[in-house]
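Cross-posting from the modeling subforum.

Setting up a comparison between two proteins and wanted a second pair of eyes on the formatting. Protein 1 (sequence, then structure tokens):
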Amino acid sequence: MEQNNLNKQTAPNSVVALVLGIASLVFGCFFVGLACGIVGLIFANKGLAQYNANPNQYSGKGMLTAGKITSIIGIIIGGLYIVYFIIWGLILGSASLEIFDLLDL
């Protein structure tokens, strides 16, 4: 069994998907996290499709799954961050309009 695992290649895009998924979590508070999450999810899905086509040839499905999950979480965090900034922009914009109305500018 161990000899069989030595002959297997790492699943395609598994390392890239995992690294981008982790980066999307780390940079989730910035807009970079959203981009890393989207690209990581694309790589994870492509890698899982290639892995599922021939599972006997590859190892490392866990890395692909972890990359997919962390990318999805990173996308959610990045999306929430964007919504947060939109809401704050609306609040500050409406507050500045109120100030201009009070000052008659």
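Protein 2 (same layout):
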Amino acid sequence: MDEARSMSRLRWRCRRGMKELDMLLERFLERGYAELSEAEKGDFDALLARQDDELWAWFYQGREPDDAALERLVNRIRENFVL
């Protein structure tokens, strides 16, 4: 899949049922995604497969994912992109 198509697909997947999550994930995609390793990009894909209530709890309620790779990514996003 070419880069532009891949980013378009990711941008679409960043659209969630909650405006705050939409804004957070899209901001990360635009400003932080390019810095990820290939493995971390896979983790971001796995993150986007999770339910909105889980994402909300991780980003806005301080809960931690049960997966170590997702925990590292969530913490990175929290530290740099949560307003």
